[in-house]
Prior knowledge:
This protein is an alpha/beta fold. It is built from eight helices and five strands. It has helices at residues 17-31, 47-56, 63-87, 98-108, 113-124, 144-154, 165-181, 195-203; strands at 5-11, 37-41, 91-95, 136-141, 186-190. It has a five-stranded parallel β-sheet with strand order 2-3-1-4-5, with helices on both faces. Helix 1 packs parallel to helix 8 (195-203) and helix 3 (63-87) packs parallel to helix 5. The longest helix has 25 residues, at 63-87. The mean pLDDT is 96. Residues 13, 18, 42-43, 57, 70, 95-96, 100-101, 104-105, 160 line the site of thymidine-5'-diphosphate.
Amino acid sequence: MTPGFFIxxxxxxxxxxxxxxxxxxxxxxDRYPDREVVMTREPGGTPLGEQLxxxxxDAPMNLETEALLMFAARREHIAQVIEPALQAGKIVISxxxxxxxxxxxxxxxxxxxxxxxxxxxxxxxxxDGSLLQPNLTxxxxxxxxxxxxxxxxxxxxxxxxxMDLNFFEKVRQxxxxxxxxxxxxxxxxxxxxxxxxxxNGLKQLELxx
Length: 209
Ligand code: TYD
């Protein structure tokens, strides 16, 4: 156990997590004025990780290569940012973390669970044998076609956002499977609701910080 608290935001592209994450950071800061709140993202979060992000979101690549680079960026992120902040008692909010690799590279592209579990153990394993996981994962869940309709309104799609509906349905199902397996860690948000209703729900979340 570390003195900090680790929150991740997840969901398929177009689910609306970006609409709420900045406001959620402010909510945490207001609610816990004595704790520093650190906002970060994956892939990215470090200078090296941001360079890897640019490659990952643009260049087509072999599936194993993609998974290894995602986890390489994550290793750097954990070592440079997440673990030091948690050890210092900070609240860390990350726009995506390892569940995204299980959902996108696993569910979406079909990388085996064995390989993902091995990478997770390698990259998130701690000296005491435990795995670094978020204390809370807020999952924005909605059907792929609703997300697709929202995405097309905004901006030019990156490599993942160009994938078809079938891909996003598989990503969604893997997120949901993981949420079902770990109901204590996951908070599921019905992302078809209006932003106001979603925000009211987030404000009422009770956290064991
Ligand atoms: P996203 O978080 O949606 O950022 P933005 O809002 O700027 O588009 O983009 C990150 C993309 O990377 C998203 O499509 C999911 C993908 N991704 C993976 O495929 N695997 C991972 O492990 C992570 C962290 C992200």
